[in-house]
Write a structure and sequence with these properties.
single chain; alpha/beta; 6 helices
Amino acid sequence: MPIEPLPNMYEVLDKLKEQGHDLYLHTGGDEENQGRKIVQLELAKYFEKRVFISEQKDTSALKEILNQIKYDPKKTWMIGNSLKTDIRPAVEVGIHAIHVPSELEWSYNQVKIDVAPKGKLITVNSLLEVPEIIQKQAQETVVST
């Protein structure tokens, strides 16, 4: 069954790559199924070998990934549509997060974020807003260091 990309996904990935950001993909579920989706959506050109598939996409999985890569919490963002598997783990590990809510949200993803963010926590209406937010934060980080 073919998978549909999120609206404006390729445009946003192109822009982030053009801005010089290292892009990582963290997805959850069955490795074979997720790998098939990555191939169908032709995401390797954006993420290359920086793809992480976790059976359980949660805070401990994100911590494991962050321990494997050289990351700066001031420059690291999680962008996702799930409060439960994207945003809450990002807030819990202390990186920035951008929530792009889905039009139809599963009750599974409806969770309360009851941890005070150490980084930025932003909700946007469109994926198209993401590159400007990240670029602005990158410029602020350069100025303050």
